[in-house]
């Protein structure tokens, strides 16, 4: 079978699935029917692809405001010649994924805070689970940028987008996302008895086949001895940095003792469940928990020496090298998402999540395309920019959208 970028997008976004076509179409039709809108033809089963097409183009060709795409001086014909400005705003105004008439009230049992986007989230998550996983995965937090009003909005000072919706993500070393959970407070995930951070890891790792020696990497917000043991019981191995207060019973050399020995010094112990705890000193001490590797084989890394004004070689345990090499999968996915992120202003919080769903689908499709080409020992023919625009062009062509005459 010939691999194409549009085929990869269909697999990731499932654009040909009637469920995806009908979910937003029927709900938007219901919302629209409550208002009197003249001269607007709306086809329920032909809704998703055209609307997604314009959003994809807007992620590539960015304007200060959406109305500028139809202005005389900055007109973008790919959008303006096919859809009028009023039609675009009308669709955006009444876009719904779930019918509000059947939604549960906030005080009722089983109320879902993400019910406005839940159908699309479930479809995207299901398609992620169907993707053959890599051996090595990282867990980290993402932010869906949003500064409007929402009870789900969070603040994270160390993120590029400090305000928005927090997403816990599992991604492979290649950047392909395999699972996620959007933070919604209590009830975000099932209770595994490991505390909230540990429960998140277990929930995101639950779709990995047991006994296949998959490896997961996470930072000290998630890590604990109890979590590593629980993962190991499922034959899922892990490496994570760990906070000092989560290893109080482990006797290792103090930071001052390692500092006297110099940069690159380390100390380690192995717990009765074969969990290794390694403390390594660079500019400060860092603690690592691991269930599949420890100190050996020892390696080296380059570090800048302020006193000697030159680079020096510093001893580095193998667990540190493994963590640094494979921890960046979620950061890589974030970086690729930001390149051509759909950034259309909206006061509706759920629209930001929908734009994120489209972006994740494109990024996953692009990375899967690269992986498949590599497996066929072929060089990927296009970059993400061409990949994204070709998807938009293919979706537009598939709908046989007529060109609207000006005037």
From TrEMBL:
Ranges for domain PiggyBac transposable element-derived protein: 55-365
Keywords: Membrane, Transmembrane, Transmembrane helix
Protein name (record): PiggyBac transposable element-derived protein 2-like isoform X1
Record-annotated membrane-spanning stretches: 349-369
InterPro entries for this protein: PGBD
Organism: Aphis craccivora
Keyword Transmembrane in record: yes
Pfam families: DDE_Tnp_1_7
Regions of compositional bias (Basic and acidic residues) in chain numbering: 1-10
Compositional bias segments (type: Acidic residues): 11-20
Spans annotated as Disordered: 1-31
